[in-house]
């Protein structure tokens, strides 16, 4: 009888040879040789971690909705499950969607309450108007790359004990990139701004945007703490420094892009 798992299709458990420490305990973050032991054709037993003595990954028995709820609640075990024990092939698609979402909000002046930058042309030419959306997309692609680059740089400077290879065998830059994309999922909360923009005040939209960005920063600090294996306070310093430097350089980039409007 074929074994069926709740996360079959994107949760990859069977590609690693037995004994290889390619998985990670979601509680302590230490490498483990496996996540479950097959008792029979229909029964699985989750393996306990040798270090913390807790189930290595309880989420292999959970439905996706429960995992998403824990992600929204900024659960470290949920982050470890997605980043280390799951197949993250589609995360880049989520990243592209989020960049396009932010670019659309920027292009439609939804962020006007917290920034003076705009790429919308005052001319009625449809081509020029569409060009503003492309410039907004370039703006946010540059912002994402700057944020990722400065987080990586400041982590190397302030937290020198970062391993070259993470617990599941993947390189640290690779896992950090996945982490930054995963932290950005909270930006889907920008969608209500698009839907109810006409019925909201500038102050209300500004408060909404600030709250979403605060949630993004908190989730990024949490994920950075997981991937870099450091304290939340150090991760907070690294992430905030990266945001400040990114904002400075992104202002220069936006100045160059506005010349094409």
TrEMBL record:
**GO BP of this protein:** intracellular sterol transport; regulation of plasma membrane sterol distribution; sphingolipid metabolic process; sterol metabolic process
Q: What role is this protein assigned?
A: Mediator of sterol homeostasis involved in sterol uptake, trafficking and distribution into membranes.
Instruction: Name one cellular component (GO) term.
Output: cortical endoplasmic reticulum
TM spans (from-to): 132-155, 175-195, 207-227, 233-251
Describe its membrane topology: Multi-pass membrane protein
User: Where is the protein found, in the record's own terms?
Assistant: Endoplasmic reticulum membrane
- Keyword check for RNA-binding: no
Give start-end of the signal peptide. Answer: none
The record's keywords, sorted A to Z, are: Endoplasmic reticulum, Lipid metabolism, Lipid transport, Membrane, Transmembrane, Transmembrane helix, Transport
Its name, as the record gives it, is Protein ARV
Domain of life of the native organism: Eukaryota
Species = Anopheles melas
| InterPro entries from the UniProt entry | Arv1
Q: Which family does it belong to?
A: Belongs to the ARV1 family.
